[in-house]
């Protein structure tokens, strides 16, 4: 009698996929490697995920599982936006290529909707209409994704020769790009916490001005 393939839980599949992501990165994560790690045949994965993209969607959902779960009711809107943005950044940093996994998935799950709802509600609390609140929420999310992508691209797994690129930049900027030369320390700063906080402050201040301008 033929032996049945072992039943595998969806949560275990995603957890194993995230572990493989940390080891191989998003390009190196394959359905074949995942099946081997789970000690099952590749077709068994398709009970849960019909393609690698659907697996990525499940991983993206799992990445933000802890975001926007504990928000004080009387929290000022600026603090709420900051809290959600901070939690989103930390969540994406938990796994190699986390920002690349999440970007462009457009997953419609409770975890993702909860995160969006938290920011949209904060901007509407500030006086934005629904359209501006949604646009502002997207803008903050795009900012977090972009910064984390750069942060992770320069992480331990990076193959970039940053020192050589910095020297090339300095040689060119010194002669031809005076403003970039003046900003060279900021351009090559690896203090991503400071970059993140400053950029988020600028976004919130700009959105606040837009809300005031729309509702004088």
TrEMBL record:
Domain HTH tetR-type: 7-67
Keyword annotations of the record: DNA-binding, Repressor, Transcription, Transcription regulation
Protein role: TetR is the repressor of the tetracycline resistance element; its N-terminal region forms a helix-turn-helix structure and binds DNA. Binding of tetracycline to TetR reduces the repressor affinity for the tetracycline resistance gene (tetA) promoter operator sites.
UniProt keyword NADP, yes or no: no
Keyword Repressor: yes
Pfam families xref list: TetR_C_1, TetR_N
GO BP term, example: response to antibiotic
Organism encoding this protein: Billgrantia pellis
Name of protein: TetR family transcriptional regulator
UniProt xrefs under Gene3D superfamilies: Homeodomain-like, Tetracycline Repressor, domain 2
GO MF term set: DNA-binding transcription factor activity; transcription cis-regulatory region binding
Domain of life according to the entry: Bacteria
PROSITE patterns: HTH_TETR_1 (PS01081), HTH_TETR_2 (PS50977)
Residue range(s) of DNA binding per entry: 30-49
């Amino acid at each position: 009698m033929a032996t049945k393939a072992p039943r595998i839980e969806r949560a275990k599949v995603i957890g194993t996929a995230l572990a493989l992501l940390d080891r191989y990165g998003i390009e190196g994560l394959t359905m074949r490697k995942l099946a081997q790690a789970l000690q099952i045949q590749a077709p068994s994965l398709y009970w849960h995920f019909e393609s690698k993209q659907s697996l990525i969607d499940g991983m993206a959902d799992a990445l933000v599982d802890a975001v926007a779960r504990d928000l004080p009711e009387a929290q000022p809107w600026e603090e709420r936006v900051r809290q959600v943005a901070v939690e989103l950044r930390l969540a994406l940093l938990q796994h190699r290529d986390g920002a690349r996994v999440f970007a462009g998935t457009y997953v419609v799950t409770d975890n993702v909707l909860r995160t969006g709802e938290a920011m949209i509600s904060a901007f509407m609390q500030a006086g934005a209409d629904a359209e501006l609140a949604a646009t502002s929420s997207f803008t903050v999310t795009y900012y977090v994704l972009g910064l984390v992508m750069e942060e992770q691209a320069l992480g331990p797994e990076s193959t970039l020769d940053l020192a050589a690129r910095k020297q090339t930049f300095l040689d060119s900027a010194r002669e031809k790009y005076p403003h970039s030369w003046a900003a060279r320390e900021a351009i090559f700063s690896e203090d991503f916490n400071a970059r993140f906080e400053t950029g988020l402050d600028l976004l919130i201040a700009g959105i606040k001005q837009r809300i005031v301008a729309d509702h004088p």
